[in-house]
Design a protein that fits this description.
Elements lengths: L3 H13 L2 E6 L18 H7 L4 H14 L8 E4 L5 E9 L2 E13 L22 E3 L1 H24 L11 H12 L7 H8 L3 H12 L3 H19 L4 H7 L5 H12 L3 H8 L2
Parallel strand pairs: 4-5
Antiparallel strand pairs: 1-4, 2-3, 3-4
Helix pairs in contact: 1-4, 2-3, 6-7
Length: 274
């Protein structure tokens, strides 16, 4: 996509050398940004997510931004589950948290600059291309991130969402939740139920009523849609496509394609390659 918001994000990335990930709690940006903008896709992040500890990164990536309040008004630097550090800037409007910006990964020359170090025991090799920041450089990157945040807040004011997430019809809300969390390996209905404010059992029945399918069938279909697009439009290896679509085990993606399309992912790519 080449929207005004996407161009602002790319401009920050060119100036800072850091990759930006955004979590939109306003529901005002979902048509403006590609789904990849909502996930940490640095190569090291992808490798960690494919490891045994990948569930920690997936939860941190997709679920934590919905639960945390992010107290740092001017931004902060904190350690992630992979043992790297990243800049975090919460965006607020009228006292409400509307979005969170993440920029990184970085390596700090002085770890005392970390405002939060919940993953102090995590260790990571220095990722190729990761910046090592001194205190003045960290302050400069945070100031650039605040300027980016100001542009996004202005855009949201000028393009208000016609509804908040809680105002969405439940069918649309369920679909959006799954479309933004399908990459989480081991995603459970309990996590969706928490977002809906319902019990898992009630959520299970609701999905069947609204979609005529079970939670797992609906999640599989959404994952297959994403995987199909990646196979048709990219050169990513099939295994990497599976990892990005919630199937860290290649056999999982293979089974899903056989059940959904009757052919393997590789065969599907041959027939549908753009």
């Amino acid at each position: 996509m080449n929207s005004e918001v996407e161009e602002a994000l790319r401009c920050y990335e060119r100036e800072s050398g850091l990759r930006v990930t955004l979590h939109d709690r306003s529901q005002g940006l979902w048509r403006e940004l590609d789904a990849e903008r909502y996930r940490h896709i640095h190569p090291l992040c992808e490798r960690v997510k494919a490891s045994r500890e990948g569930h920690l990164c997936e939860e941190f990536d997709a679920l934590a931004p919905r639960r945390e309040q992010f107290p740092w008004k001017q931004g902060a630097c904190r350690r992630c589950p992979a043992g790297m550090s990243e800049l975090v800037l919460p965006l607020r409007e009228g006292g409400q948290l509307i979005a969170v910006l993440f920029a990184g990964p970085v390596m700090l020359e002085d770890t005392s600059l970390l405002q939060e170090d919940a993953y102090a025991g995590a260790q990571a090799p220095r990722p190729e291309g990761a910046q090592s920041l001194s205190e003045p450089e960290l302050k400069q990157r945070l100031e650039q991130l605040r300027q980016l945040g100001a542009r996004i807040r202005c855009w949201l004011r000028d393009h208000p969402s016609p509804y908040q997430e809680e105002d969405l019809p439940r069918k649309e809300r369920i679909r959006r939740y799954l479309e933004s969390h399908y990459a989480v390996s081991g995603l459970q209905i309990a996590e969706l139920a928490q977002d809906l404010g319902l019990s898992p059992e009630r959520s299970r029945h609701l999905i069947k009523e609204l979609f005529g399918r079970s939670f797992r069938e609906l999640l599989r279909d959404i994952r297959l849609q994403a995987a199909s697009a990646m196979l048709a439009n990219s050169d990513l290896p099939v295994q990497r496509v599976g990892e990005r679509c919630g199937y860290p085990d290649p056999a999982g993606l293979h089974r899903a394609f056989l059940k959904g399309y009757g052919i393997s992912p590789g065969e599907w790519r041959k027939r549908n390659r753009v």
